[in-house]
Amino acid sequence: MIVISVLCSVVTGCLSTNTPSLKEDFSLDHAEMRLRSHSQAVQRLLNESGLIYSDELLEEYLDQMVVKLQPPEIPAVFSFKILIIRNPYLEAFALPGGIICIHTGLLARLENEAQLAFLLAHEMTHCTHKHALRTLWHIESKVADSRDTGEASGGKRPLTLFGITGSMDRIRRYTHDLETEADLVGLGLIMRAGYDPRAALRLLEYQSIDLGEERVKDPRPPENNREIRRRNKYCNNFIRAQYKKETPVIQNSNEFFKNLGKAILDNSLLDLRTGRFHSAERNLKKYLAIKPDDSRGHYLLGEVFRQRREEGDQERGKAHYTKALSLDPSYADPHRAIGLIYYKSGNKALSRRHFESYLALSPQAVDIAYIRKYLTECKD
Amino acid sequence: MRKLALLLLLLNCACSGPWTKVGGLYEAPSHNFSVVVPQGWKKFNTDKYFLITKDDPFLHYILIQQISIERPFKHTKKRIKRGMLSQEVAEVIIDEISCDQSLTDFEVVENIPVKINSYDGFKLVFNYRMKNNLSHKTIYYGFLTNSYFYSIRYNTSEEQHADKDRESFEKILNSFKLTEKRPV
Prior knowledge:
The complex is a heterodimer.
Chain A: H1 2-9, H2 30-49, H3 56-69, E1 81-85, E2 92-95, E3 99-103, H4 104-109, H5 113-128, H6 131-152, H7 158-162, H8 164-192, H9 197-200, H10 206-213, H11 222-242, H12 253-273, H13 277-290, H14 295-308, H15 313-327, H16 333-345, H17 348-361, H18 368-379
Helix pairs in contact in A: 1-2, 1-6, 3-5, 5-8, 6-8, 8-11, 12-13, 12-14, 13-14, 14-15, 14-16, 15-16, 16-17, 17-18
Chain B: H1 2-13, E1 19-28, E2 33-44, E3 50-53, E4 60-68, H2 86-98, E5 104-116, E6 119-129, E7 135-144, E8 148-157, H3 166-175, E9 177-178
Antiparallel strand pairs in B: 1-2, 2-3, 2-9, 3-4, 4-8, 5-6, 6-7, 7-8
């Protein structure tokens, strides 16, 4: 069960020579049935968890992208389903049977449609090339090998001699190979669909960039960065060999940002809650570059600055709250935020004015008890 | 939250050895506070925090913690900082709990300013559901001193305990005293 769980949750992929043909029979053997039934259980759990993010416009757009990328060889029986998960961290994974799970954080991080296409094509390849199943076979074959070698060496199995690490390393290498396969097949799919693969590749670096920005120690093992560099190198070689620069490319910037806008904004709230201030700031600035007159975008960016409390942040925050109010004078929350900034700086008159506006606009506010307390103190 | 649950599980499995019956005045000099505990409670033997229960710590406990300012949380990268308003501290606590993906249906029912041992603080009441589908209710008081954040919370599984020891909790809360000298 643990192995199956790992296979279902860890995206897998390989450059092996015996890649199954897409025209191959798609009938399911017992192992695949088990994997699919487990992935259905994961899907049920996700649905019940309340973590699934719902945005009809975005879901429709992603479905259209999948159709655009789907190789014609894939039988009609193989259908993809995309689940968007409410989570600010940059992750995506594929479950056996065509279920692709993408975190809102990763969608919000994307810069262009080519990157989205690459992300989808990569995950689709994990499904169509049965990477989970192949990893399961690989693990089973390694276990069988070690059993045979163990018997030949008088019962001392290699796993016992070298510890489990040796075996896990081989499995990890195999899954790294499968990742590379998903990259290369994915690049092929997006090129065929008319995207510029060079615009897509930066996707591989985002996780490391973001960890650096948040000044967080990379929780992934050190070989992970080496692996990303290796995948990047393979992809660049592939693009140099296969991509013709004069080919016209799809940009679709307006369509891309129109469909992702709500997710970017909603995810910035998750970034804010998790204290990922740099990520929230970057994504909100990206959002406001497309929708400069969105009062909620300005308010949330103000919140990023107010809560981060770095030098100059309070003034930056105030500027965005003021902009939000100029765009929507009936918006209560920026008044509360400006009131708090003035209250903390000791400017009772201005804080009182904004707190009163806040309560007038939002008489049922959840933090009414705090605001009344501040107002009482401001009157003293 | 999950870490605490795991800890409680290990403790529970390891027999009742780590638990000691308590009642009356309890002083925690290493954490600079004292409380008066009604009879019938047992305390987990640790210097890291003050944890008492009457029966099953999974379903019902009172926990008092002293946390250094700036100590990182598990689920949010936000920190409690010196000079924060009680409302801002409460928001950090809410964010920490709401970012814990092992909980579902997290809902804040009350968030108000209160005085705790003459310090400005906050009171939160929230509900959530654990992965085992058991729903819990927590009453969470918190306040900031110059160097520490103190939290005093009462957690019950709604199905089994509801508010049965609410009164005991209120008594413990009202008896809570800081023994560190308040900075002038």
